[in-house]
Amino acid sequence: MTFVPSLPPDLPAPRPTEIDAPFWQACAEQRLRFQHCPGCGHWQHPPLAQCEGCGAGGLHWDEPPGAPELFAWTRVHAMLHPAVQGHAPYLVAVVGWPQAGNLRLLSNLAETPGDAPAVGRALRLVWETVAGGQPVPRFALLDPSRQTQPPQDRPVRLQEPHHAASSLPAPL
Length: 172
Ligand SMILES: [Zn+2]
What we know:
Layout: H1 21-28, E1 34-36, E2 43-44, E3 60-62, E4 69-76, E5 90-96, E6 104-111, E7 123-129, E8 135-141, H2 159-166
Parallel strand pairs: 6-8
Antiparallel strand pairs: 1-2, 1-3, 4-5, 5-6, 7-8
This protein binds zinc ion.
């Protein structure tokens, strides 16, 4: 297994706004909390002033149910910021919580097998720090030994368009 080092600990710290300050305050306590609407149950991130689902205000900050999983990822080779000089390539991951609707978090995979991790893989939360000691949430594969196996407990989404296409009339 290839170990991909984490990003450097002196990355610039986040500068919270009035809306996302509760997210970063929770991170400072190494807790992951997202906006959750008490009215319609919608989860959302990044934070907004109102619920994307029903428009209500007064959103709660709750820990999402269930376990995180890998929704999408990409390997970054370019030096997009001076702070990551010498640390590429690194993995940028979109993390999802299937039990929290379309809740997504853009983060990094702190370590990974060198190959392509399969979408749908279970992740574990890893806290790392940036400048000022601010904890930031990052993720690692829950079971790295399974790196070559596809998810076993869910359908392969790529089959769906195939079924849809088979119901169309054949081209002339
Ligand atoms: Zn709502």
